[in-house]
Automatic annotation (TrEMBL):
<dbReference type="InterPro" id="IPR054416">
    <property type="entry name" value="GST_UstS-like_C"/>
</dbReference>
<keyword id="KW-0808">Transferase</keyword>
<dbReference type="InterPro" id="IPR036249">
    <property type="entry name" value="Thioredoxin-like_sf"/>
</dbReference>
<protein>
    <submittedName>
        <fullName>Glutathione S-transferase family protein</fullName>
    </submittedName>
</protein>
<dbReference type="GO" id="GO:0016034">
    <property type="term" value="F:maleylacetoacetate isomerase activity"/>
</dbReference>
<dbReference type="InterPro" id="IPR036282">
    <property type="entry name" value="Glutathione-S-Trfase_C_sf"/>
</dbReference>
<dbReference type="Pfam" id="PF13417">
    <property type="entry name" value="GST_N_3"/>
</dbReference>
<dbReference type="Pfam" id="PF22041">
    <property type="entry name" value="GST_C_7"/>
</dbReference>
<dbReference type="GO" id="GO:0006559">
    <property type="term" value="P:L-phenylalanine catabolic process"/>
</dbReference>
<dbReference type="GO" id="GO:0006749">
    <property type="term" value="P:glutathione metabolic process"/>
</dbReference>
<dbReference type="InterPro" id="IPR004045">
    <property type="entry name" value="Glutathione_S-Trfase_N"/>
</dbReference>
<dbReference type="GO" id="GO:0004364">
    <property type="term" value="F:glutathione transferase activity"/>
</dbReference>
<feature type="domain" description="GST N-terminal">
    <location>
        <begin position="8"/>
        <end position="84"/>
    </location>
</feature>
Amino acid sequence: MTILLYDLVGSDPARPFSPHCWKAAFALAHKGLAFESVPTPFTAVKGVEGGVFGTVPVIRDGERVVGDSFAIALYLEETYPDRPSLFAGEGGKAASRFIERWSQLTVHPFLGAAALMDIHDRLAPEDQAHFRTTREARFGRPIEDVPADRDSHLQGFRAKLEPLRSMLTYQPFIGGDRPLFADYIVAGAFQWLRVISPYKVLADDDPVGVWFERCLDLHGGLGRRVSAAA
């Protein structure tokens, strides 16, 4: 049975952009599981599977409904142990928790602020109103003002990626010789920006960008099925 993945979209249902939904999509593909993306705009999220989670991603696998990208990865690991592992053991789960917190606290804040108006502009009108209200409450200022200083903070953001950049001189993936869920956590963040905004955050020769290109090629080029924003 095909698994359903409720995927956050804007006005174009063929362009899912949520970093967390991309994590789930990469995890499903890593396990070799067939899945169908269910386009879900912001204002429809509260109705997904009865609104039990309130956010996406959410998957339905037969009778099981699971929300939250990390919980989805754990569910897939436990339910399909005969398929390629997302964690390569308990240590991998613990390390992925660290990577997730690092990504949420270091990568997401800059990317989310830098692309804020790009996200808004790609939403349907009813979703734009919701997005503006919630994000202005979060940032405490008009959303138009939030990306205004992104260029002045870009070099600082790039510097924060140095631990990842340095690690990639030793191995091709965060997971080692092959990708694990830890890779999908960070790749999901960069895919978020790639799909929603033309803003360039990585230099052409940045090893992080080279790694991200490798991630886009995984699983039959899953990440490239949605073109980069222009």
